[in-house]
Design brief:
This protein is an alpha/beta fold. The protein contains 9 helices and 8 strands. The chain has a domain of 159 residues: 3-Layer(aba) Sandwich (Rossmann fold), CATH 3.40.50. β5 and β6 form a beta hairpin. The N and C termini lie close together (11 Å). It binds BIS(adenosine)-5'-pentaphosphate.
Amino acid sequence: MPDGAGPDIDAPQRAIIFLGPPGAGKGTQAREVAARFGVPHVSTGDMFREHMARGTPLGEQARRFVQNGALVPDEVVLGMVEERISRPDCRSGLVMDGFPRTQPQAEALDEILRQGLWAPPRVVHLVLDADQLLRRLTGRRTCALGGEIYNIYDRPPKVAGRCDNDGGELVQRADDREEVIRERLSAYQAQTQPLVDYYHGRGVLASVDAAGSPATVTERVFGALGQAP
Ligand code: AP5
């Protein structure tokens, strides 16, 4: 969305969930979709990284899991998410990225949404092959100021090492080292992949081919959500 432009689509009045393996483009697409709907982008990964950077007790609890590519325990994640969803800015809907990631998290989210009288969520499942996942993860750089996501291979900034939006320094995530990536991919297969069947069975899941340019994928995502991009 261009700088300074307001939301161009009515708010979704529900939770839109991005599901998919590390590097599939959840953060890239969730930021775009949230901006166009004018609703918050809630990324549990970003929240943990912020807590870790600030050295909060929650960040210290999460650190060893995140650094090793393992999932943070459900009870830690759930407390943080429940508090975030309860804030007034989520009343017209929100876009979730990286949550839920386990069956207990999905069931807890169902309960939170039910109690809040929310409509059922819409789940966008991003699908990408392993070679491309690795290329995207090893090439990722993130703005230390605004969080904008780049890729040195496929989405480079105009000036090397600097964010196009605010000139912030572009940094590599500590968990984007190859040995940690392997752990993250295997945690995804074991604990998160089963949610594809869970949401498919409830008729709320749309699988989207995540190959191609970010703009192409965004078009497919809005198509899957039944909205013109
Ligand atoms: P999190 O931050 O959620 O990481 P992740 O799921 O591993 O996903 P990524 O952020 O790595 O990838 P992405 O799919 O968002 O891709 P992106 O858009 O950045 O979680 C980190 C850690 O926190 C976890 O390992 C865990 O420890 C903990 N955690 C978080 N949530 C948790 C939970 N619910 N329960 C327990 N623990 C939890 O794109 C990747 C790269 O590809 C970028 O460089 C981007 O520019 C590029 N790219 C994107 N789309 C395209 C495209 N179409 N074409 C070319 N390049 C593209």
